Prior knowledge:
Layout: H1 2-13, H2 22-37, H3 44-53, H4 61-82, H5 89-99, E1 106-108, E2 113-115, H6 141-158, H7 164-181, H8 188-202, H9 215-227, H10 231-256
Antiparallel strand pairs: 1-2
Amino acid sequence: MNKLAQLIREYKQLGIDQQIDYDKLYLYSIITHSTAIEGSTITEIENQLLFDNGISANKPIYEQLMNLDLKAAYTKAFQMADNHDLIDDKKLRELSSLVMKNTGSEYNTAIGSFNSANGDFRLLNVTAGFNGRSYLSWQKISAKINEFCQWLNLERSQISTNKIEKIYELSFQAHYHLVTIHPWADGNGRMARIVMNMIQKEFNMIPSIVKKEHKAQYIQSLSDAQENDDIKIFLDFMTDEHIKNITHRIKEYQKSIQ
Length: 258
């Protein structure tokens, strides 16, 4: 983690995050890679045209809606981060409803109906792929989410703003715990990455991006951590991923100003 802290300081000292349109274009990159992990084929340039000019890419409407919805969710999430809002089940469901607004579905079960487009928690049990491990039973979701929110709010209130390593560690832990609870029928990965980036944004850190090129390793690190009940596997992957991304951006910036 010390290497990550050094890189973040160098990144800020170089003023990379002070470039024109930095926040906007960086967010577009986050969105593009996050939806790509879920199957979207829309590029960063195509998203820039879609978001800024309303120019539709020659891609399926479903993918365009997925990206537009995630942009709305991130806008709301970053407002919450700037306001230091407490996170509770209502706010998580609100963010989820934005993520799934135009691509969610209604589910009818023996227990009752729920709609992922409304941010409803699932009323059915799910597994991680065919013959995969089972996630938390739906009956336990509400209590587990409340426990998660209490833990996260307490950690946020106690962490020092200059503890770069601890801030990133907390954000990665939040990602892991939320996706492991798996409270929604769809959109859990996007929501976990939103909450991770919210925490980083709240403490003025450079938000981390899980690159679409590393999707397999990302999913494998989650699976291995869950199967072995060892969160360190996931924390190490996310730290290394962020180090690689920040190192690449620093090198590209230094080349551009030579």
